[in-house]
Amino acid sequence: MPVILAVDDSPSMRKMVSFTLTGAGYQVVEAVDGVDAFEKAQSQSFDLVLTDQNMPRLDGLGLTRKLRDHPLFKTTPILMLTTESSDLMKQAGRAAGATGWLVKPFDPTRLIEVIKKVIR
Amino acid sequence: MAEVHQDSGGSGSDFDLSQFYQIFFEEAGENLDLMEQMLLSLNLETADDEELNGIFRCAHSIKGGAATFGFSDVAELTHQMESLLDKLRRHELKPSSAMVDVLLESADASRALLACHQTGNVGQGPATVDLVGRIRSLVAGDAAGVVVPSKAVEAVVSHPSPVAVDVLPDATLSQVAATADGRRYLLIRLGKLDHLAQADAVAELFRDIPGLGEIKSVTPPDLAPDERVFEVVTTSSNEDLLDLFAFHVAREQVSISELDQTPVNAAPPQNAPVAVAAETATPIAYGFFDGAPGAPQPGAAGQPPAKHAVDAARNSATAPRTSNASAAPPEAATIRVAISKVDQLINLVGELVITQAMLAQNSRALDPAVYQQLLTGLSDLDRNTRDLQESVMSIRMIPMSIVFSRFPRMLRDLANKLGKKVDFVTQGEATELDKGLVEKITDPLTHLVRNSCDHGIEMPEDRIRAGKPETGTITLSAAHQGGSIVIEVRDDGKGMSREKILAKARERGMDVSDQLSDAEVWQLIFAPGFSTAEVVTDVSGRGVGMDVVKRNITSLNGTVEIESVEGYGMKVSVRLPLTLAIMDGMSVGVGNEVYILPLSSVVESFQVRSNAVSTVGQDSRLVKVRDEYMPVIELEKVFLVPRFDTEKTSDMMVVIEADGSRAVLLVDELLGQQQVVVKNLESNYKKVPNVSGATILGDGKVALILDTGALVRRSRH
Q: How close is the nearest chain B Cα to the Cα of A85, in Å?
């Protein structure tokens, strides 16, 4: 069963994402911000990382950079969930090493649709 | 930024999002509280990035959730707040008190809207058109002074959502719209830098990001050693550039100015995309970066990772500087539990304490030599039970900051309304108190604080005339003292006038003498309907209030004391037990009955000396204790205790104090002091006069806990 790391500082978003993914047959590990996520990534590899951008302590871009620096996460798909969809934000995401982005708000069906494109 | 209304694919979903509403409501409430708190403590002059980012994040988070869960009115309002806060955190606008006002009002409105969604009264929330308009004009107000090309935000909002594009050939180029004339020539100064490599990282961005523009390092004559200056040709706005640079240098280290002419040698950008314009043209709900690690490719399952790993490594070499020290602790450290579960636990521990007490009592007769192991076990049980009880009680304990935090906002509004200047100081916010008590003490405290501001603190000009600082101070403090918590509301206002209160009391037909001590005079203001305000304001002086405050506090087994010096201010001290679930009691025997007195109201006890008791009238008796006459209450008569042992008579006296008055209880004997688990009599039986509750004793018998306040009042009539 593919394992997804879902990172968001908002409990309701985390719960929604986690519920949606679990229902679609994925296993989900939740993290409350970039620092928490990076800690969890030390001991486990994931098939996909879904991260919010705006979070306390370490944001999505920062997390993406740190993960890409880690041998386990060189090629892991990392999707940014963001309300900030300006092109430069996307380019910053790209420069940080993100795989793609998904604009908030999104619908659970859409989320799964996107995830299926990167996890097989 | 502005895609609240953008394609969310919200229709046709099989998922029921309503199951997440509750958690969202709680989370949004917390975010609103936090935002309010941060706004109130925001110093307009010295606001730092961390504070502004924190406030921004609250609005941002609510907006995201509200949009996801379909609360579009909340999303719209918080979106506007976010826009304003975004400008503030980018230092494009300077925070003003008008902004704080409108943000606070918007937070209130958001709260009201959320409450409507929560209760299903959609559409009954407050109108937000005015707020939205005010925020927009604040956002626009200073925008003219900042060189930012219009982002056409509105266009996004109303734009129809197109079908999502699966995989973009290139995230940047795919969204290029050719607008040749967006070029800007800028001078960007970076400094003071800790490491000059930061500047190189910024310059590298222009190489890494196709279409961002051209950058060239220049050396102006005034270049400081920790500065770097670049000439830049770009089509991006300052805002977007700052956003991008923020990964390497702090915002305040960047200064951007427009060059008034084309820099020499600067080639016009070849493929400069108008990223912003492109965004408005194609709002896309998601996308992948071509060639990025893990990105899907049409027809191919995997990625040749080597090149991208190198890319990624290079990108990450320019290190994450975005880590924010503001460290909201991960809330995984706490769990939410229904209060009923905690109460159930407390109840069970209460039963355990009683069982343990019964075992302890029954084992007293056992011979220690024979039952040594059993007795050791019982004493361990005693200790463990007490520890367990303490731990369980502490679950219900919450810090006073929960109550205190609501006052700054209230005082700010109130002081503004009254035209007064007030500083609010809190002390001992970390002091913990039982949740039930916290909830019940909030209203009385609110009243006291309002009173201080309304009646205590003078108008600024009066204060100056009285030789005081123009700004008054109201201090709210909490501290543990023994088994109680003492909460004080102090102000440096005009205090109370003894003469005015006495005059007012007489006016109201109360029989008061001039001989009353100050403390007794101050207690007069707790009389029902007593208000000393000469002009009744709509704030606190309707003549109801202090008596309600007093009654509420008394019902929590608490006391209120006032100290006041005319011209210098006053202090109201509220003393409360830490919890209502257990109590230190003194057990007294009358006939075969055992009664419990709250230890906090017991002053002293002594053997009856017949010469000290005098009879007044038909059956009132007084006793003289240390030159003070006190009414005697015979518990035997109050509770009609049957006498089987006619030899025995009541010959112990216990002085109790409540509401500032004293009385003497006549009992047979003092049985001892113990902690008792308070059981509510009303919920288990019914309200009984002079009794505040019941407990179960070690031997399994029920003992009534006396309502000392009611007994003292009764004796005074």
A: 6
Chain A hits for B320, Cβ within 8 Å: 58, 61-63, 65-66
- Is there a contact between A85 and B279 if contact means CB atoms under 8 Å apart? yes
Work out how many CB contacts closer than 8 A connect A with B: 241
| Structural domains of chain B in order of their starting residue, each with its CATH number | 17-146 (1.20.120.160), 173-286 (3.30.70.120), 337-396 (1.10.287), 399-577 (3.30.565.10), 582-716 (2.40.50.180)
- Residue B454 CA to residue B449 CA, distance in Å, equals 9
A-chain CB neighbours of B15 within 8 Å are 20, 107-109
Beta strands A48-52; A3-7: pairing state: parallel
Question: What average pLDDT does the structure give for chain B?
Answer: 76
Q: Searching chain B, which residue's CA lies closest to the CA of residue A94?
A: B289
CA B258 from chain centre, in angstroms, equals 45
Confidence of residue B310 (pLDDT cuts 50, 70, 90): very low
Span B343-348, average pLDDT? 85
Query: Quick one: which of B139, B128, B60, B147 has its CA closest to B96?
Result: B139
Contact A61 B322 (CB under 8 A): yes
Q: Which residues of B touch A118 (CB under 8 A)?
A: 288, 294-296
Identify all chain B residues contacting A107, using CB atoms and an 8 Å cutoff: 8-10, 13, 15
CB B603 within 8 A of CB B656: yes
B290-304 residue pLDDT tens: 777 777 765 444 433
For B143-186, give the DSSP string. Answer: GGGS------HHHHHHPPP-PPPSS-S-TTGGG----GGG-EEE
Tell me, letter by letter, the H, E, C secondary structure of B362-399.
HHCCCCCCCCHHHHHHHHHHHHHHHHHHHHHHHHCEEE
Q: ipTM more than 0.85?
A: no
> Is any Cβ of chain B less than 8 angstroms from the Cβ of A87?
yes
Domain edges within chain A: 3-118
What is the arithmetic mean of pLDDT over B343-350? Answer: 85
Query: Whose CA is closest to B480, among B519, B541, B428, B526?
Result: B428
Q: CB distance A58–B327 less than 8 Å? A: no
Measured between alpha carbons, how far is B677 from B349 in angstroms, rounded to an integer? 9
Instruction: Report the CATH architecture of A3-118.
Output: 3-Layer(aba) Sandwich (3.40)
Q: Which residues of chain A have pLDDT under 70?
A: 84-86, 120
The torsion angles phi and psi of B363, rounded to 5 degrees, stand at: -85, -5
Q: Is the pLDDT of residue B201 over 50?
A: yes
Is the pLDDT at B352 greater than 80, yes or no? yes
